[in-house]
């Protein structure tokens, strides 16, 4: 049984099987990706496919199969399992004996409430640094961050690297706003989420000033607003980080959130 699977079926190497018959071997190397399904459409699957294969390139591993297999497998799973809305996890595992498998299955999701979008969420910080941020691979940093979220009850924790810079969330990317300018961490320092890529493209198209740079933990108090982006939260305002309060609503964040929601709607309509 795959521990994070919530569906009764798993697509394994193209075949739909009972979830209870499938497992990921102990000690396996796992490279994965998570995407959101809305109205039976896998959102931005082309971008997720590119990031999935990039993880192999960056970790100096041979690409496991042709590029079309990633998207085709997800669409097959959605069709056969009848998934309408939810989060799907795609996992390629390599066992200690070099046995491989590609799995597609539904995982538990937690989407923000209307109140969270209106009032923002509370975040904490966590001292942790991914050795290779842009390889989407299981890591101790993520697991330890999740423990802190469970212990403190915050919505998300922002990672602080060894130089005391804020990089990203444990499962999201982070943006800050000062006046009319958006500030975010350098791409090389974070896992460049698909939502992050979409958001940055929207920022440019909306002609909102954007600065990518190191963000010291000590300067968080200087920003007017903040938000996180990700598969589940989309564009979600932050109300507070470790006692520092931010403006909610903020006109820059609201404008961006509305533009992103419109982009999702248009993508769904064009891919049905």
Overview of the structural elements:
The chain folds into two domains: 9-107, D-amino Acid Aminotransferase, Chain A, domain 1; 114-269, D-amino Acid Aminotransferase, Chain A, domain 2 (Alpha-Beta Barrel), CATH 3.20.10. The protein is globular and about 50 Å long. The protein has helices at 45-58, 67-81, 114-119, 140-152, 194-205, 251-271; strands spanning 9-12, 15-18, 29-38, 41-42, 86-94, 100-107, 121-127, 156-160, 166-169, 173-178, 181-184, 210-212, 225-230, 234-241, 244-245. It is built from six helices and 15 strands. Strand 8 (156-160) and strand 9 (166-169) form a beta hairpin.
What are the salient characteristics of this protein?
six-stranded antiparallel beta sheet; alpha+beta; D-amino Acid Aminotransferase, Chain A, domain 1; single chain; D-amino Acid Aminotransferase, Chain A, domain 2; nine-stranded mixed beta sheet; 6 helices; about 30% strand; about 270 residues; 2 domains
